[in-house]
Amino acid sequence: MSKSSYRSLDVWQEARVLTKEIYILTRSFPRIETFGLVSQMRRAALSIACNIAEGQGRWNPRDYRRFVLIARGSTFELEAQIIIAADIGYIDDPEPLIERTNEIAKKLNGLLRYLRKMQRTRPVTRYL
Fold it and tell me: What's the domain range around 78?
């Protein structure tokens, strides 16, 4: 990985925007959901961007890859929560958000492929 920051990654930028949208969207959910679905959706969305950042701060591609895998898992978790929120009637049209999570998952898959390649071609050293 180059010396550029995680902030320059398209996938991180998209995850950041999605997190903001989830925070705004969940403001309209019923108060009874504050410690339920609202909290879960916000944490899953936040986890995507934060794990990308934390992973890049690690010492080697193997650790970075592990955190990107966690971010990918959070992406699917958020997608499931979006679907459930729509099923309950909290979201009218979940498709744009589902498409966004799918796009982020694809980009995370690309980052994972890159990190796998780096793991094979470089000794375990700090790469930032």
Answer: 6-121
Q: Is the pTM of this model over 0.85?
A: yes
* 15, 52 contact by CB (below 8 A): yes
CATH of the domain at 52: 1.20.1440.60
Three-state DSSP string of the chain: CCCCCHHHCHHHHHHHHHHHHHHHHHCCCCHHHCCCHHHHHHHHHHHHHHHHHHHHCCCCHHHHHHHHHHHHHHHHHHHHHHHHHHHHCCCCCCHHHHHHHHHHHHHHHHHHHHHHHHHHHCCCCCCC
Structure confidence by residue, pLDDT tens digits, 8-57:
999 999 999 999 999 999 999 999 999 999 999 999 999 999 999 999 99
Domain count, the chain: 1
Instruction: Let me know if residue 23 belongs to a domain.
Output: yes
